Amino acid sequence: QDPEDLKRAAAQAAAELVADGMRLGLGTGSTVRHLLPAIAARGLRDLRCVATSEATAAQARELGLPVEAFEALDALDLAIDGADQVAPDLWLVKGGGGAHVREKVVAEAAARFVVIVDERKVVPALGAPVPLELLAFGLPATLAAVAPATVRPGAPPSPDGHVIADHHGPVDDPAALAARLDAVAGVVGHGLFAPALVHDVLVARPGGVEHLRA
Ligand code: DER
């Protein structure tokens, strides 16, 4: 089945979780691109939306969704986002689109974080690359500290002016790798999302949408 149909099915299922008056975090990527029209089509009232990228903000506004700066809210009821990899224990790799720092801030602020993927994203074990967001200051020293890692070719700076890079090492122990990356001062963020952060994963398969709960 066409992956876009699967992405749309997962997005539709997530859109059903949105209720009037919700403070809603909107992720970034091609699956979320199907989420926004599905939410807009529901004609919900009094939504307050926060976007994790300019691309999401622009598409949401085009659809008439009320997007506001995240500085106006100190908590969200629900955040919905895609993922690059989903492991059986619900460790995630995100950041293929380079928005993972803002996405993680939004996910952590949400009472419920729902991930929407097509079945291709479900993997037996996480693997490289793990996206990184690095301070430009002292970049070579930081790259050495997190080796093996490279700056992502052609990637523009993040909305917050940081460098997008990728870690290429094995991810046998995501918790250990996440701790190692978090310990390096020049690492602003990385794309490993812990299961504790993830409440639901909606996996679209040809037979339907599977609902994994943490
Ligand atoms: O960059 C990101 O974190 C995106 O959410 C990514 O993980 C999923 O993008 P996709 O829906 O286009 O595969």
TrEMBL record:
It is an enzyme of class 5 (isomerase). InterPro entries: NagB/RpiA_transferase-like (IPR037171), Ribose-5P_isomerase (IPR050262), Ribose5P_isomerase_type_A (IPR004788). Pathway: Carbohydrate degradation. It catalyses: aldehydo-D-ribose 5-phosphate = D-ribulose 5-phosphate. It holds the Pfam family Rib_5-P_isom_A. Its EC number is 5.3.1.6. One of its GO terms (biological process) is pentose-phosphate shunt, non-oxidative branch. Keywords: Isomerase. This is Ribose 5-phosphate isomerase A. It comes from Baekduia soli. The lineage of its organism: Bacteria, Bacillati, Actinomycetota, Thermoleophilia, Solirubrobacterales.
